[in-house]
Amino acid sequence: MGRAFVLSLGEITLLGAALLSLGYFAGSSKAKFRSSSSSTTALSKGVVASTTDSEQQAFVLAVNLKFTTLTHRDTFLQLIDPVCKDVLANEGPLLKQTSATSNSSTTETTLSYKVAISDKNPLMVLILERYSDKSNGYLKVHRSGGEFLKFREQLKAMQEEGGVDIEGESYVETELGYV
């Protein structure tokens, strides 16, 4: 017999949103990760959880934002637009970069960066972020970007005035499934 896992409504919502959003990126990543000699643990006949070194796998952030008004949400969308463009130009897929538009290294560090609005509640927004790794792609490259730093201060001010609640989780991808 298999094992059942009980998830809270919030976990189910986050998982569902992440899985739906991941569909946007099918086949878009050209980054290659070396396969590791990880140990695996069998969970309920056929489901495998990888215990790999997390630096070899993509690092994923799922950030949920709940706005108090549509005005706050729309302001957020205007604020994050330059971040999305900067990420694509300077951290994103190598196929979309040209020497004239990018001064970043030759390594793709942000595998995908997508903003999605809930189809059930227009005040809910998800940012799904995938990085080549946590230490370089996310912490060193992305978090030091000029547009990101400016945006983060603006979002922090909106959060402090009560215009948005922010929750997020980080994950390390397994080799199950595809993106």
Task: Describe, in short, the structure shown.
With 179 residues, the protein is α+β, with helices and mostly antiparallel strands. It has 4 helices and 6 strands; from the N terminus they run αβββαββααβ.
Kindly describe this structure.
- With 179 residues, the chain is α+β, with helices and mostly antiparallel strands.
- Helix content is 32%, strand content 23%.
- It has a four-stranded antiparallel beta sheet with strand order 4-5-3-6, with helices on both faces.
- Strand 4 and strand 5 form a beta hairpin.
- It is globular, with a radius of gyration of 18 Å.
- Residues 1-7, 12-52 and 99-104 have low confidence and may be disordered.
Average pLDDT rating: 76
Helix share bin = 25-40%
What ranges have pLDDT less than 50 throughout 5 or more consecutive residues?
1-7, 12-52, 99-104
Q: In DSSP terms, counting alpha (H) and pi (I) runs of 4 or more, how many helices?
A: 4
Question: Which labels suit this protein?
Answer:
single chain; 6 strands; 32% helix
Summarize the topology.
Elements lengths: L8 H14 L17 E4 L3 E4 L8 E9 L2 H21 L19 E8 L6 E8 L2 H8 L4 H15 L3 E9 L7
Antiparallel strand pairs: 1-2, 3-5, 3-6, 4-5
Helix pairs in contact: 2-4
